[in-house]
Amino acid sequence: MCKRLAPLVACSWLILLALVVTALLSPYVAPHNPIRERLIDRLLPPAWAEDGEWRYVLGTDHLGRDLVSRIIYGSRVSLVVGFAAVIVGGVLGISLGVAAGFLGGRTDEVIMALADMQLAFPTILLAIAIIAVLGPNFINLVVVIGISGWVTYARIARGQVLSVREKEFVEAIRAQGGSRWRIVWRHILPNILSPLIVVATLDLARTIILESTLSFLGLGIQPPTPSWGGMLSDGREYLLSAWWIATFPGLALMLTALSCNRLGDWLRDLTDPRFQRTEPP
Asked: Which of 179, 152, 146, 136 lies closest to 80, judged by CA?
């Protein structure tokens, strides 16, 4: 199984590596200023199409802005918001999940009740409501997207802690007078991180898509800053006359999400013995 999936995993690593490198080096890689408007060059098709120009490889949008440059700069937004939201949601969810699993009792009931309450609301609707109240800016976007995903981390962390806290080595540390903080920080947390890292990898795709969705609706990163969701929103009115405006940002978003999911599946197969298969002799 792993051998058959190796090419897909390698492609996923290459795609994400290229995305990170271009995002970091975007001022040097992008051929044009992504927010510079040049109406004389508006709606130019890709270079290989009729009337296309090679200085605009993927064409231009309705304001004459280069799509390649905007996609490159948009990757910075998607990656920064995605990673930051995963960190916020992961830290919050793991902290609450460990507290619920280790302390139990009323603490467990309250935290799981909060998780059930959040699951009762559609994620996108909750995010839209909060952003509409707080206003669309980078900090609010990261916090809202991060909070929307804490439940998954909390439930997995709680389940893992409930399993690990009854192990013999934990009982031995308690018998030696180990504090709760020392038991959690030095012995329980390192033993539950593996599945949580896999969840974080899969959650990265969700956060990137959610950021693009909010930007598409006008509640994410605001113009003129390039974002993939904003580019999709700009291109929806030109799907018949200028299909490239929405197509190429959509492909970038799709490849990024697929790569994150593929790497998450690979990490799951690598770390979970239930998914490891021995080759026949």
From this structure: 146
Q: What integer is the mean pLDDT of 83-96?
A: 93
- CB neighbours of 139 closer than 8 A, spacing ≥ 6? none
Other CB atoms within 10 A of residue 22 CB: 18
Task: Give the C-alpha distances (Å, rounded to integers) separating 47 from 70, 126, 166.
Answer: 16, 42, 63
Question: What domains lie within the chain, and their CATH numbers?
Answer: 2-275 (1.10.3720.10)
Q: Is the pLDDT of residue 252 over 80?
A: yes
pLDDT at 5: 53
Q: What are phi and psi of 66, to 5 degrees?
A: -70, 125
If phi > 0 it is left, if psi is from -120 to 50 it is alpha, else beta; for residue 201 that is alpha
pTM value is: 0.86
Angle subtended by helix axes 189-216 and 228-235, to nearest 10: 30
Unique residue bearing structure tokens 């038991």: 183
